Amino acid sequence: MNEIVIKQNLAPNVWLMGIYSPQVAKKAKPGQFVILRVTENGERIPLTIADFDNEKGIVYIIFQVVGKTTSLLSQLNPGDRIIDFVGPLGMPYEHSPEDKDYLFIAGGLGIPAIFSKVKMLHSEGKNIDIIIGGRSKENIFFEDELKKYCNNLYISTNDGSYGKKGFVTDILKELLESGRRYDEIFAVGPVPMMKAVVDITKRFSIKTLVSLNPIMVDGTGMCGGCRVKIGNEVKFACVDGPIFNGFEVDFDGLMKRNSYYQDVENISYKEHKCKIGLGE
Amino acid sequence: MQNWIGGVEKLDVLKRVPIKEQEPIERIHNFDEVCLGYTPDEAAREAQRCLECKNAPCVKGCPVEVKIPEFIRLIKEKKFKESYLKILETNLLPAICGRVCPQETQCEQNCVRGIKGEPIAIGKLERFVADWFRQNCEFEFSKPQPNGRKVAIIGSGPAGLSCASSLAKMGYEVTIFEAFHKLGGVLYYGIPEFRLPKEVVEWEIENLKKMGVEFRTNMIFGKTFDLEDLKQEGFDAVFISSGAGLPNFLNIEGELLNGIYSANEFLTRINLMKAYKFPEYDTPIKLGKKVGVIGGGNVAMDAARVARRLGSDVYILYRRTEAEMPARKEEIMHAKEEGIKIVELVSPVRFIGDESGHVRALELVKMKLSDPDSSGRRSVKPVDGSNFVFEADNFIVAIGQSPNPLVKKAIPDLELNPNGSIKVDENLMTNIEGVFAGGDIVTGAATVILAMGMGKKAAESIDRYLNAKKHENL
Ligand SMILES: Cc1cc2nc3c(=O)[nH]c(=O)nc-3n(C[C@H](O)[C@H](O)[C@H](O)COP(=O)(O)OP(=O)(O)OC[C@H]3O[C@@H](n4cnc5c(N)ncnc54)[C@H](O)[C@@H]3O)c2cc1C
Ligand SMILES: Cc1cc2nc3c(=O)[nH]c(=O)nc-3n(C[C@H](O)[C@H](O)[C@H](O)COP(=O)(O)OP(=O)(O)OC[C@H]3O[C@@H](n4cnc5c(N)ncnc54)[C@H](O)[C@@H]3O)c2cc1C
Ligand code: SF4
Ligand code: FES
To answer: Residue B413, exposed/middle/buried by CB under 10 A (0-12, 13-18, 19+)?
Structure first.
């Protein structure tokens, strides 16, 4: 159980792992996530279920090394076990059968959150466009995998080293301004990116969903650490979300809450780096 | 024995044998247990005070009817092992109950000695024999003949543990499914180490394993598995004891500001994730110089005392007065000894934050107590125009928990009470046949001993139900 069966490097500091967890694979639906712990002294961190194979009992995650836990995880190899791996958590991404045209936007580490849904909608014969973006050419991954399941794949890089120079929102604006319309848009990425997407899609009144990434502890609705403001209500992202109507999300509040532990996380990561000899 | 009384050291029968505790000045710098417990001699001396009353009113005050005079007599005789086994006849977790039960409103409230002097320290004696046994004896259990039936238990808190133990004794094959990576429910993630050392909880759970109970962690009912999965795995009945883990918030302005924790989040980070040992442990906690804790129950006391140990100046902000606080008297006393200040008769109005989204203060309104109503309870109401601002770096909201809604989502047909708790009949069976429930998920946030009592009762009901079903099939 929880054995790593596949490990691949997708981009600098970005890894894909396949984990043997038949119980999670069996119940997983697109949009859901897991919580895992890597060591006995470790923290619980949420990661999206990027894909799952019910028959083989494998759950796929894609993660970026940003701090101590993701760094420890990246040092594990096929054959190693993850001590705690619990899920699937959160509400699945539900879509209405009538909708035909979808646009998916993934900035940074947004791809895991869109991938399994894209596959599902593709198998139902929907029209799918995708925009992905990264800082630079080397940060773009999964291009070929996504192409298999969509009509158009648009790519942007901030420095213009690949695809269109600029942000995913530049491509979005162009598409909508040229008259392209969608029944539903799903955007996942850094909070400022999701906020920028919603600012644009609001003008065109296109239903827009986002997947939020507040700080979580238990992931089962027991602590309220993940609380976010949606419209006039306070919701727990781990049980009511993580997917919400983008027009209702208080992005500024979320950004502030996510920055709360930044300084102490740095302490933990620095100490960890010193110990494994990377130093600074 | 006899020479204890009238012997070298005269026993004042009206007064309790004092118990050693860590000094407040010392203990606010550590998470070690505050109460150090009786020595064998001290315990035997305290036991001498018991009158061994025939009608034993103390027993009537105990929700699981521990045979109090009997176990105390065995302490007098220094037969500590026998004493432990006597308690075990009706109470599965004496080391835990002896520490966390509100004895002052249960057994000790009824103690005849309490009429003129101080009641017998029943809780401390219970705790003593359990600790003595843990340190000196090996837990033995001769497994009964398996009866071939399987029961699934959801949640490893006191209700689930007690149900599991009763069923195991009857020969059932029992599996406990727990959402977290650690076992014990509130005993693990809620009640702090300085009140209930985790090694005590772990020891009790090890004993259950010896009885053949199987534990599966990281299993969330309603997410990882559901009733259908349990049926397929061949379980004959289910006991739901998932507790009241949903934190209530005040629903006032500013509650999403940084620096405001629910007590659940704060205590989970501390107890389950050991954030007080950061960065040795990876989970962080951030607390400033001055902390306000909102509430007056056990949870508020625990949160306040943890915050104190992290070095903060702590204020408990409570709507009523200290006299009405639902927390155990002992905990309120300990909190005060540790320098925690209680601000009475205040109610939160709104949180006030700064530019960066961090909380800076809480606006409070003063409250006024009314005369007691027919039930003897005094209500409070705000005093117009008495609003004032209380500045602090952090606030912890400890105003209660509600039943976890995950279970209802997993069983849409399950009947609930208006407050979200699970509806059960007199046998603790829900409206779904073969599915029983007990503990906080049925009563709302209550006590360890009540949860345990319900676990035991459910085990008996499950046994009756399955026996009847067997006969039907014949
Ligand atoms: C529902 C959900 C799904 C997620 N899915 C993925 C995924 O599929 N792939 C992936 O790479 N990441 C995902 N994340 C983010 C991931 O959980 C964090 O990157 C991870 O917790 C960082 O842990 P760490 O110990 O390595 O870093 P830490 O030391 O904890 O943090 C490093 C830095 O990241 C920031 N950070 C910490 N937690 C979060 C968070 N939840 N969101 C944004 N920033 C954070 C910190 O402020 C800090 O600056 C998801 C988050 C949520 C809530
Ligand atoms: C901080 C604090 C201090 C307290 N102090 C005292 C005290 O001093 N004395 C006293 O008598 N009482 C005290 N209480 C109350 C007491 O702890 C509870 O009444 C008691 O623990 C209830 O037991 P339970 O078994 O019903 O639930 P819990 O102890 O809450 O256990 C429920 C378990 O179920 C698990 N669970 C929940 N949902 C699921 C799911 N979907 N699938 C699988 N598992 C699930 C939870 O993770 C948990 O482990 C305190 C409570 C708190 C929070
Ligand atoms: S009521 Fe008090 S004195 Fe009497 S048996 Fe119980 S503990 Fe002993
Ligand atoms: S992470 Fe604790 S309630 Fe969502």
So the answer is: exposed
